[in-house]
Amino acid sequence: MVPAQYYLVLSAAMFCIGLFGILTRRNALLFLMSVEIMLTAGNINLVAFSLQYGNLTGQVFSLFTIALAAAEVAVGIGIILVLYRNFRGVDVTKATTMRW
Fold first, then answer.
1. Of the candidates 10, 87, 15, 98, which has an alpha carbon nearest to the alpha carbon of residue 23?
2. Which residue in 46, 76, 89, 99 has a CA-CA distance of 20 to 30 Å to 57?
3. How many independent structural domains does the chain possess?
């Protein structure tokens, strides 16, 4: 059996990659992908601790997080389509000029 520390290191690395993607990218699609990587890192933590302690609570929370991620992607794609329609691109720095 693989120790939980390996899962935690993998999760920390994935979270750092996602955070780096959020802080450095301007493309909205890459921004959403980075958020998904960070949510996946959290899911790995939940499942790793669930397996370590023999409790299914972490896996249930992981399923809720996956459902939340699916809803976030649906809303995010809608926002990206509006951004592309208004500015002819998906650069998130141009969205600061949007007004009501």
1. 15
2. 76
3. 1
Measured CA to CA, the distance from residue 77 to residue 32 in angstroms comes to: 9
Per-residue model confidence as pLDDT tens for the chain (100 residues): 888 899 999 999 999 999 999 999 888 889 899 999 999 999 999 999 999 998 999 999 999 999 999 999 999 899 888 888 888 887 877 777 666 5
Q: Are 46 and 68 in contact (CB under 8 A)?
A: no
DSSP 73-87: HHHHHHHHHHHHHHH
Among candidates 19, 45, 47, 48, which has minimal Cα distance to 33? Answer: 19
User: Using an 8 Å Cβ cutoff, are 33 and 63 in contact?
Assistant: no
CATH number at residue 9: 1.10.287.3510
Contact 18, 37 (CB under 8 A): yes
Q: Look up the domain containing 45 and give its range.
A: 4-97
